[in-house]
Amino acid sequence: MSVENHVDHWGTSPRDPVATALAGIETALGDLLAMDPGYWRTSQKKDVLARLEILKAQQAALELRVLATAGDIAEETGDRDASAWVRANLLVDKSVARTQIRLAAAVSKHELLAAGLTDGSVSRDKARVITKALDAIETNPVASAEDLLLAEKLLVDYATRLTANELRIVGRRILVEIDPARFEDAEAKALLAEEERAQQKTALRIWDNHDGTIGFDGVLPVAMGMRFKTHVEAWAQPRKQQLVEKDTPLPPWERLMGQGFARLLETIDPDTQPRHGGDATTINVVISLDDLRKELGTAILGFDETNGTTISATEARKMACNATIIPWVLGTDGQVLDAGRSSRFFQPTQRKALRLQQKCCQAEGCDMPPEWCDAHHLEPWSLGGKTDLKDGVLLCPHHHRLAHAPAYTHERLPDGTIRFTRRP
Predict the structure, then answer these.
(1) Could you tell me the residue range of the domain that residue 372 belongs to?
(2) What is the pLDDT of residues 195-207, one digit of tens each?
């Protein structure tokens, strides 16, 4: 029986089955929202969460079915699809609406997938994963219509047992599961082609935010990207574990990763780097004699402001502990008064010796392991300190920053530990 048979000429008939069904949903949902889950039994909470997950999939199925037949809505306003109406009336961004309309069209082509959404066994996210996998199969010259149908059946079945991310991994290799002999070679060729395309997409942008930070983003091939992620996490995770052990609230993971990346850069041995501008990869710092003598001086990282950036003298002294750095000291009229010697890393043998002597960060009360510490010059290198064991001390990144911070003083105690004191 058609819906029109239940609607009067004014469109206000209480027998409208669509309106009646929606009203029932709204009433039932209102009843649940009026309750306080804090008083529910544990079994009730579990039941509600499980059934809501099914209802969300069924709600998505209904929404996608409506969007798939929403051409008449677009015709009313002369738009190419219903996204303009959705934007104007439902306040949903057009890009989001168009994504949903494309998903609706894709789901409508696959009966098993549509049925999975309708019975609540396939969520919207999983439906999106499955349609992407099926679209790839449709464009695969080796795959047949039978392969497509079997892949749809298998993926819908997997959706009842896997998360969306797990389903995505399976979807990439579903054809190999269907017929290994026929599709393994094709998969290998496809991976090679994908890796070649990834090389062409590799990019990196770096810009100055003019607020003391540098911004960057980029794209790497998967293999290189995973190596990068692993290296950064190796430096970020120890910090996280130390904070957990000390019952300190964890900072955001993004900050931990950023700090880990900074530590990764600080540990790069310049001797292993290619020549840069005709010289070995070396940091040049230009500083005036007045600023060199002041605790709160500034310096230029690079040869000039055009090709470098301004940093604090404190940061320059900190960098001298962990990078090859040459200071250029200028007089008031810009003449070069001194071209200092190149500061070097503590050599691997020296670091090993420091680790044998100093079992952790030498700051009073700190137990950060030595492998996560910097080798610091007790006598500042910029003031003639030497890179030797007598002058070397292991400090964690936090205390290393304090060692160079003008707001703090530090002294070596008789037991060899370093005591930091805030200046009055």
Answers:
(1) 338-422
(2) 778 888 899 898 8
